[in-house]
Amino acid sequence: MAVRLRNLLLSKEGGIFLVLIMLQILAILFVDNYTNPDNIKLLLKATPSLGILALSATVLMISGEFDLSMGSTFALAPMISALCHGAGLNLWLCIMIALMIGASVGLANGLITVWTGMPSFIVTIATMMFWRGITLFIAGARWVKFKTEGIAQFLFTDTIGWLPLQFIWFAGITLILWFLLNRMRFGNWIFATGGNVKAAKAMGINTDFVKVTCFIIAGILAAVAGFFESLRVASVGPMQGGQILIFTAIAAMVIGGTKIGGGVGTVLGTFIGAIIMFSIQNILMLMRVQAFLFQLLVGVILVSAAAGNLLIRKKANSLE
């Protein structure tokens, strides 16, 4: 039994999974209406946007790069998609346009980063402001309606019983990325590039190609996250929360076990971390915490959860 417990705690996702379980138990015991079916449905509907954005950050961070412009892509891609749909374009074509925008933003970020040698943190601060300005220029201060119908409505906004389809998409994207990172050669290249660029180059890995590809993946996922969020609320605005969500997504990524600096990370941990982060926000809202204390308490709980995960790992090591 002790060996199984140690193996669970030492796994990449084991410690954070136990944090999630403990958080859920405390919420069930002490927070009113937490287990209300409507609240559970809200949790499952709202988590995918944050979670997919966190997955975007995770893949890129493992490669050793950073993208602060994801919040702008989160708003830009669905905004243009919604405007095109409102102009009469087929929804599926609008979806492809959103994905192409995400890929293009990621490609631009990647090429600028590898060609200039500038830190991606600096590059994406600049592109974040640029693309946010483009979004504001296109839409002004107005929100645009973005509704679906038919099969698209079922696939992107409906539920199967109590389970929202968007959460299934979130889980499916997580599994695809897990397979990419852990079962494909390109995944090994990503970890090698993020761990030590010089050593990766010495092994014959085209690290520039790896980084640019990861930027493209991150851009596409940011567009998907924004698209899902827009369809969930049936509208999209130029300031629809992407810049706030990106820092929460980064927090979910870090809680999930991804190392700032690259080379270490797990998308399954990020999946769990995203659920933890939104659960914390939901708990605070149910407790009617005043708005100006909201972010403060989220930060405190974030640090506590990360510290708890570290202590659990140390405890697991002592069981050897």
Commentary on this structure:
This protein is an all-alpha fold and 320 residues long. The chain has a domain at 51-267. Helix content is 78%, strand content 2%. The chain contains 14 helices and four strands. A two-stranded antiparallel ribbon has the order 1-4. It has a two-stranded antiparallel ribbon with strand order 2-3. Strand 2 and strand 3 (163-164) form a beta hairpin. Helix 5 packs antiparallel against helix 6 and helix 13 packs across helix 14. The chain is globular, with a radius of gyration of 20 Å. The two termini are 12 Å apart. The relative contact order is 0.20. The model has no long low-confidence stretch (mean pLDDT 85).
Give the topology, please.
Blueprint: H1 2-10, H2 14-30, H3 37-62, H4 70-86, H5 91-116, H6 120-139, E1 144-145, H7 150-157, E2 159-160, E3 163-164, H8 165-183, H9 185-195, H10 197-202, H11 207-233, E4 235-236, H12 242-255, H13 267-286, H14 291-318
Antiparallel strand pairs: 1-4, 2-3
Helix pairs in contact: 1-14, 2-13, 2-14, 3-8, 3-11, 3-12, 3-13, 4-5, 4-6, 4-11, 4-12, 5-6, 5-11, 8-9, 9-11, 12-13, 13-14
